[in-house]
Amino acid sequence: MNNLFQQHWEKVYDKEEMQLSWFQHYPRTSMEFIKLLNLPYTANIIDIGGGDSHFVDALLEKGYQNIWVLDISSKAIERAKKRLGENSLKVNWVISDVTEFQPSVQFDLWHDRAAFHFLTTENNIYRYVSIAEDAIKQKGYLILGTFSESGPEKCSGLEIRQYSEASMSARFEVGFDRIKCVHEDHKTPFNTVQNFLFCSFRRK
Question: Average pLDDT of 17-41?
Fold first, then answer.
């Protein structure tokens, strides 16, 4: 695991959730995709870079039973567990750099809101795509949210890579068919607006 990268994120999660730009009470766009895909409640779902996001709360509330949350920050995972209380026992927690992730199961859905765009080297991007291809079942789904070309160029002090529908699709075209892309204007706790691009794909 990249220790410097991990240390960076552990320090970020010293802040309260309302001090983090990506915080949202309810992951509306992600849950709209969940509704569109109409997954069974027994589906294996993983949230990549989930941290202490409330996406897992929304999935549990809907009745999904097989949920994984992966994050490089142990502090973020512990915060999510504390918030969920006994419900945290229903979730599989993974502390890992996504580019070193070795899944123990295959997933019906791989969800990522704002982790992928922190990968800025071709090597790390290739590793991510390769791991996702292997981890997602045939005809399984990928939901990916990144900053759009109209979004920020940095986040939490780190450079990111912006995406358009075309450039995101090109990254995954070998193993996936694109279903739908939407833009989201995310209002941060600081009353600024960040433009995200969300795309859904189906594993070939």
Answer: 89
Q: What is the pLDDT of residues 42-97, one digit of tens each?
A: 999 999 999 889 999 999 999 999 999 999 999 999 999 999 999 999 999 999 99
Residues 139-160 have pLDDT tens digits of 999 999 999 999 989 888 899 9
Residues 6+ apart with CB under 8 A from 95: 70, 71, 72, 73, 74, 77
Q: Which amino acid is at 71?
A: D
Show the 3-state SS of the chain.
CCHHHHHHHHHHCCCCHHHCCCCCCCCHHHHHHHHHHCCCCCCEEEEECCCCCCHHHHHHHHCCCEEEEEECCHHHHHHHHHHHHHHHHHEEEEECCHHHCCCCCCEEEEEEECCHHHCCCHHHHHHHHHHHHHHEEEEEEEEEEEEECCCCCEECCEECCCECHHHHHHHHCCCEEEEEEEEEEEECCCCCEEEEEEEEEEEC
State pTM to two decimals.
Answer: 0.93
- What domains lie within the chain, and their CATH numbers? 3-9+27-203 (3.40.50.150)
